[in-house]
Amino acid sequence: MGEKMRAWLALSRLPFHSVGVLPFALGGVLAWQQEGAFRWDVCVWGTLGVVLVMLATYYAGEYWDYEEDALSARWGPSRFAGGSRVLQRGFLPRHAALWASLISLLLALAVGLVLQLGYRTGPWTLPLGALGLLGGFFYSTRPLRWVSTGWGELWIAFCYGWLPVAVGYYLQTGRIAPLVHWLAIPIGLTIFNVILLNEFPDYPADAATGKANLTVRLGRDRASFLYGLISLGSWAAMLLSLSHGVPTRALWFYLPILTLSLILVVLVVRGRWRDSATLEKLCGANLVVNLGTTAAYIFAFVS
Questions:
Q1: Per-residue model confidence as pLDDT tens digits over 210-262
Q2: What residues in the chain have per-residue pLDDT under 70?
């Protein structure tokens, strides 16, 4: 039982839930600060819904990306790409991930019904949740499989950028304030870069199996320059948000993140990703940029 539990925890990829839960928390913080509206019970149910949507996404990815993840594990394993490798090692049967994904999807819809009908959070509660499932569950799931259409990275930017911030705010207030959009842009751009750079270690396996994500379509050299352009956009968006209602003290919290992001751009554009050990460190630091951007906003509103 202990081994099975550890296998399920690894398959669930709990550390990566932070990229969805933290922006959702930001939406709740913004609702509290702007309108004095905050209900802990709604927050708990909403967080559960966000986690279930991510579980449906991650489990589906483990099932549908089985072949390329197996190749990636042999050719260049990374903590930030190639899945958990739980299924490939035989710790759990492959079909368990599919069933867990479907159960998580149904539970997420049930949570949406509780919030909309039980807590009367507003008519857009279920549609917003359905958008998250459409982008997340079908990121890897056939027949849509956004990851192979060239649109997958944009879906991730939406589902881990605008959507959780908007939902966190909407569940508390029943509306979406204009400031939500300004907060979501830099968060969405940084998570876009997280996905883009995480595709670098998987590039040989993805190319070999026909997984035509953006990095495979562009090639890693051109994807490196796209990474730099997206980073530049995230910096500009963060600065613009300061003139649309974000406290200026957010800049002080953001400065260390901006410095780290600038260093990453220099290293990525110069091709330091060609060394696998360095690439893994770049992917880890890249995740810090995304989480740090969201945290800078949270600290600015609560301090």
A1: 899 999 999 999 999 999 999 999 999 999 999 999 999 999 999 999 999 99
A2: 1
DSSP 3-state helix, strand, coil percentages of the chain (rounded to 5)? 80, 0, 20
Q: Collect all residues with Cβ–Cβ distance below 8 Å to 54 and sequence separation of at least 6.
A: 16, 17, 20, 136
Going by C-alpha positions, the residue among 90, 23, 92, 85 that lies closest to residue 53 is: 23
> What would you report as the CA-atom Rg of the chain, rounded to the nearest whole angstrom?
19
CA-CA distance, 98 to 239, in Å (whole number)? 42
CA atoms of 156 and 20, how far apart (whole Å): 10
- Asked: is 2-302 a CATH 1.10.600 domain? The reply is yes
Q: Helices (DSSP H) in 80-145: which residue ranges?
A: 94-113, 125-137
Give the pLDDT score at 1: 66
Segments making up each domain of the chain, as ranges: 2-302
The whole-angstrom distance between residue 239's C-alpha and the CA centroid of its chain comes to: 22
Angle at Cα 104 formed by Cα 103 and Cα 105, nearest 5°? 90
The span from the CA of 111 to the CA of 109, in Å, is 5
Contact 8, 99 (CB under 8 A): no
Residue 121 CB coordination number (10 Å)? 24
